Amino acid sequence: MEGLDEIPWGELRHNDGAACDVPALLRAVAGGHEAADALEELAGLLFHTGERICTAAAAATPFLVELAEDPDVTVRARIVSILAENASEAELIHDRCPVDPAWFSAWAAAVLELVRLLDDDDAGVRRATAYALAHAGPHTDAVLPALLARFSVEPDPVTRRDLVLTVARLTAYEPSDRLAALRDDPDPRIRLAATFGGGRTVSDPGTVIDATALEDVSSVDDPSEIVRAFAVHLIVAGGSASAHRDRLAGLLGDRTPLSQGMAQLTGDLAVWGLSWAGDRRAQAGLLDRLTDRWSSWPPDARRYDASSYGIDLPGLDELLARLDGWSDALLPAVRATLSRTWLSQVQIPLMRAPARWGPAAAPAVPELIRMLRIGARRWAATALGAIGPDAAPAVDHLRDLLRHDGAASGERPLWNDERVEIAWALWRVTGDGRDAVRVLTRVVEPLAEGRALPVMRTATRYLAGIGPPAAAAIPALRAALALDRRLAHHGGWRAFDEDRRQRDLARDALRRISP
Question: Using CA atoms, how far apart are residues 134 and 171, in angstroms rounded to an integer?
Answer without folding.
Answer: 10
